[in-house]
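Blinded run. Sample ID left blank on purpose so nobody reads anything into the name before looking at the predicted structure. Input follows.
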Amino acid sequence: MENSRRQLQYLSIALAAILAVVGVLVIALDWHQVRRVASEANWKLAPMVLLFTVISYACLSYRFTIMNRIFGIPMSQRDLTEIGFVSITLNHILSLGAAGYSLRILVMKRSGLAVGDILAASLFDSYLNNLALFLLFPVGLVHLLLSQPLSRGEATGAVLAAVIAILGILIAAAVLVSQPIRLVILRLIAKVWRSLTHHEIPPALGNLDATLARGMAVIRGRPLVLALPLGLIVADWASSIIALGFCFDALGNPISPGVLLTGFVVGVTLGMISMIPGGLGVQDGSMAGIYALLGVPLEQTVLAAALFRIIYYFIPFFVSLGFYRRLVHQMGQAQPGT
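Blinded prediction complete.
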């Protein structure tokens, strides 16, 4: 048993080293923007960006703790908060949810927890969080339509994107509350996946029905149990948007809340679905393009997006490596079933 725990600890340390190398490579790809921001930013406003970044990550980590409590995970609040923080920063830097889930399983499984329980809490939390982001997406597009003189082709594209987003939200909500609809859609997804990849659907998606059903059962029994997690989702996204707003303040004139929301939602959404590590290039380029379309100077948009990446993504990632080391050491002492 001692050898098994020691091997897992070595594996975890190796994984941390790999993650650090990946993070450095991602940052190196964007190093020219880092240097440019360092020379042109008004760093007196950087503490405000950092403050709202801290608030955002605190909301994310605490929400992870609460969601695991809802699903009956018997771990200490400190351990759950640190696991949440480390895995969330990993997801942010890589834009791959599977990486964060794997890390959670690797660390939490040592306390004798079932993989299904670990994944259930994470999947349900991610589902609600992404649903909230997608709710903001059509809001941003509608603002774009109402506030900017667009060509006929641009307006048609924005309307089409907004309609698709709204339909996606309605389907996602139906999947959450209705098991028959959920089963039909999951079977369709499994069929499409099989035809495209010639493989069975990944277990995480295959378990989504059981996860959502379990989560909805808890909610129906205790309707108010989601009040705090939903409030933390709102606080997290609001803090992220405000942090980006201060980035714009540090690099030029302030921009209106509507313009800020529109560019943020479109950029983050496209960065998430791109599957490129950290949405590197996609998120920043999308933000710059949307903000420029909304009348913000292109120079300011490019540098603000880069400053946001430095403070909101890079700094928390390196901070998380210290927590990861403590977490590995502590979990290495845990006995299964304790």
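Unblinding after everyone has recorded impressions. The two ends are 14 Å apart (CA to CA).
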